[in-house]
Amino acid sequence: MTFRPNFIELMWGQPDPNLLAVDAMRRASANAFDRWGAQALHYGFFNGPGPLIEWLQARIQAHEHMAVSEHEILITGGNSLGFDQLLTLHTQPSDVVFVESPTYYIAINILRDHPNLTLMPVPANENGILVEVLHERITQAKHAGKRPRLLYCVPTFNNPQGTSLSPERRLALVQLAAAEGLIIVEDDVYRELNYDSDAPPSLWAIAKQHGIGHCVARLGSFAKSLAPGLRLGYMTAAPDLIARIADGGVIFSGGGNNHMAAMQVAAFCQNGDFDTNVAHLRNTYRARRDAMLRALDTYLPHCRYIKPAGGYFVWVECPPYVDTSKLLSKAEAQGMSYVPGTKFYTDGSGNNKLRLAFSLYEPAVLMEGVRRLGVALQYFLEDAQ
What we know:
Blueprint (H helix, E strand, L loop, with lengths): L7 E2 L12 H15 L13 H15 L8 E4 L2 H12 L5 E6 L3 H8 L5 E8 L2 E2 L1 H13 L4 E6 L13 H14 L2 E5 L15 H7 L6 E6 L11 E4 L2 H8 L2 H6 L4 H12 L2 H27 L4 E3 L6 E5 L6 H10 L2 E2 L1 E2 L12 E5 L5 H22 L1
Parallel strand pairs: 1-12, 3-4, 3-6, 6-7, 7-8
Antiparallel strand pairs: 2-9, 4-5, 8-9, 10-11, 11-14, 13-14
């Protein structure tokens, strides 16, 4: 990453480098070699190293109150790679992939790397994706002679909205997917970063509890809870779905994803450092979120926002006559940046919306960044008159 001088880059959904657990990871790296020696540097097991899978099994048992077998877990090279592998191995040309709207804009880029797929947006509100609209879109796709195959969504502390799918919709969504033969790709990257209450049950856990676990592939990650440079995550899904990826050529040729990083993280977690690190991140990001919300109340009183209960982002809705793509140049002239709302839609919607990230800076800098945005918005409104 490069940062422009005197700029406050509220576009980046990145952790503050000062919050990364350098010392604990240094110890974990030494511990990995002390415990496993050359095995940490060799080819690994296709599903991932046993020590990390065992830790994940225990954590899922403790936090999601269910047993999970090693055959239901796959260590991935991060959520983006896991998503791409799902698309590569579980879709065919002309399949329909439904996309929660708005959604993580880089996921849209990954989907567009598979140009033979048909993308169909499904709207979401503050309570998450509209399940009844998804049902309508599935029917439309079938009538058009296409196969509905996947739904991509971020149901817990959504990027960009910061919202979570309601409990009623969670159950309805997995039941609809099971009935229609749809695979839900649940991007669960922000699960650990909850600020006001516990994260809701994952779609994967709900589906598994109801005996329909085959319809959800949950993508978890260490990018937000530990460090993005590890390029490490995990997938929980039905054994046959996991096996299809683990037996695929990419993993077969390399003996697992990012084996050395996975061994380091296994040592980090077994040392008890994971919970300590997550608690520190939660406290720090909660304070930063609250600072950004205070700044929005002060400097953008005519804009609406959704208070995020977790994650990295605040989703801001400006008055309908504000085009945030055009506002951006004025914001950058003031020395701050954000992501315009249109990035998060497949159809170019969201002209008057924008996403701000609060993860990278301390509270005083966040408040100054929002103040600069307020100045830019005032100039924009004056020019529009």
